[in-house]
Design goal:
Helix content is 18%, strand content 30%. The protein is α+β, with helices and mostly antiparallel strands.
């Protein structure tokens, strides 16, 4: 099979989803995973008439009749049982988070008071009845659906889960991935490389991306020995649902992986995509259901393929509808080859809230230092060669932008 178009390759990847595991996770370990249960209010939100300002609580009718000075009957901190006033022409000092006393209905903040000895005097002429009180059930009622299952758990969802007492959550968990680098020229990051060697680095960028998608990962390396590679890869395919290989998939004399994968009975769905970077990208599935992404070895190529294809695979498997992000080019780009071009760019908002992409051309797919200055890839389609400033295109971020 020769080169296929990017859109076809992407659809093939999305049409081979994994079956998510369902696990119970402690709340603190559930961030970023997909919720597999509805979160239901176990009490009203808020659960009582809650004071929202430090100050005094009064009965509004007394103020409305002209009373401005109030004897302080009691001081009430947050976290104490509800108090019942003995005289609703008096006031209580009350703190944020406390239960509103029975018989009182309005809170005046300290900034609008003068307190001398045991008397509070209101020094403004206009107040609203029931101000500065968050009344019971205003937000949600007992039994209301607050969060529907299927959402990715972020910080707001963690708040809600804790508020309804969910110390554990049922979540969908993506498969663990084995990230495998290949090549005799690669050494560990702790090693001082010889002149002909480089440190393994692209795998750490891919690992960071996969971790963002909620995937746990392990790192492995294989030297360019076909027999040993085949033995090691067979074991990893048997024990992992997801294999991410880096390098060894092009046409070099020591690029053994396509041949090894075929010998191991892995079904190739495609090899080579009409794109830059990442032309030699290989994708297939093993007989045991393991999914294999064989990424090109150049760091930018592997990073791009992981950003685009593996993220799409995870989203499709977890039934997450990805948000489409559009950017406007800030400058002209000329790219003659009829390839889908994933161009590194930095983005920013202009004064009108439009997301602008400032692309920059590096020194090929080995120039991963450029990634530090970028926020993602703008996708330029193969049908054109000149992409004008002001034109709008799809954008794949690899950072949290907002």
């Amino acid at each position: 099979m020769e080169f296929i178009q990017f859109t076809e390759a992407l659809n093939i990847v999305k049409n081979h989803p994994f079956l998510p595991l369902v696990e119970k996770r402690e709340l603190k370990n559930a961030l970023g995973l997909i919720l597999n249960e509805n979160l239901i209010a176990d009490r009203p939100f808020p659960p009582f008439d809650r004071v929202t300002m430090d100050g005094i609580a009064i009965a509004f009718y007394a103020f409305d009749k002209g009373q401005r000075s109030f004897t302080i009957e009691k001081t009430i901190p947050a976290g104490t049982p509800q108090y019942t006033t003995k005289d609703n022409t008096k006031c209580v000092q009350i703190m944020t988070g406390a239960m509103m006393p029975i018989g009182l209905d309005t809170v005046i903040r300290y900034e609008d008071l003068v307190i001398e000895e045991n008397t509070a005097t209101i020094n403004i002429e206009t107040i609203k009845p029931q101000q500065n009180v968050h009344f019971k059930g205003m937000d949600r009622q007992l039994g209301d659906l607050i969060i529907k299952k299927g959402i990715r758990l972020g910080a707001p969802e963690m708040n809600i889960a804790a508020a309804i007492g969910k110390a554990e959550l049922s979540v969908h968990v993506p498969p663990k991935a084995a990230i495998i680098t290949t090549g005799d020229e690669l050494v560990s990051i702790e090693t001082t490389p010889e002149a002909h060697q480089i440190r393994r680095s692209g795998n750490y960028g891919v690992q960071a991306l996969l971790n963002q998608y909620g995937m746990e990962t392990s790192m492995h390396h294989m030297n360019d020995d076909k027999a040993l590679m085949k033995e090691a890869l067979a074991l990893l395919i048997d024990t992992h649902q997801c294999i991410v290989l880096s390098g060894g998939v092009s046409k070099g004399k020591f690029d053994y992986l396509p041949e090894i994968l075929e010998e191991l009975g892995v079904q190739k769905h495609f090899h080579k995509v009409n794109q830059r970077p990442g032309k030699p990208f290989w994708f297939g599935t093993a007989t045991n259901g393991s999914t294999i992404f064989a990424l090109p070895g150049n760091p930018v190529s592997s990073f791009m393929c992981a950003s685009v294809y593996i993220q799409a695979w995870v989203n499709a498997s977890l039934k997450i509808e990805p948000k489409t992000i559009k950017v406007k080019l800030e400058e002209d780009v000329n790219f003659p080859p009829p390839l889908t071009y994933f161009l590194e760019c930095a983005v920013k908002f202009d004064q009108n809230g439009t997301l602008l992409a400032s692309p920059f051309i590096g020194h090929g797919s080995g120039d991963f230092a450029n990634l530090v200055a970028a926020d993602g890839f703008v996708i330029l389609p193969p049908e054109k060669t000149l992409f004008k400033a002001g034109e709008v295109y799809d954008f794949v971020p690899f950072r949290n932008l907002f």
